[in-house]
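Appendix B, record 7
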Amino acid sequence: MVVVFFIAAGILLVVLQTTIFMPSPVSSFSPDLHYVLVAYLALRLDLLRSLLILLPLVCVLDVLSGTVLGMHALSCFSGYFLLQQVSSRLPVNELLYQIPFIALSYLIVSWAVYHFLEFFTPGQQAAWIWWKMIIHTIFVAGPAYPLFFVFDLLQKFSHRHFLPHNKLRLRSDNRRRRTT
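Structure tokens (predicted):
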């Protein structure tokens, strides 16, 4: 159930990001809310569930964003593995200490994806401007704490049993039988 709830939440974030918050694909002031979900998955969930959630998320994001196909998949998966490796070596697992790492990893991954795409298609990418990328990074780090809180609530809600196991269990013996 965790996977289903987080796929729905991720698709909702992608739709919000690509319709409301992004007037154009190269908008300077649009938050990348999907990266906060990628960071949450890297920091809080296991590898299999995270990849099952990320695959449809990046497919929908690539289709709806209108940019180079595969660019968001490259950024999401590289950001996921970078954050997972960094978080495994962190001595503190508190969220307030992880938010700067989320912002720094977003900046590093964006820079690496930009140079990767610029190498294969020179002149096709918008110019790398540091102040715009710092604004993007702030727009990723700003909503990280409230979104992590919402994702924690979603994870707790998805772990509840909708049909309790003890009510579904059938008795194997007759209730009227005497026990000796």
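Remarks on this record: The chain has a mean pLDDT of 81. The chain has eight helices and no strands.
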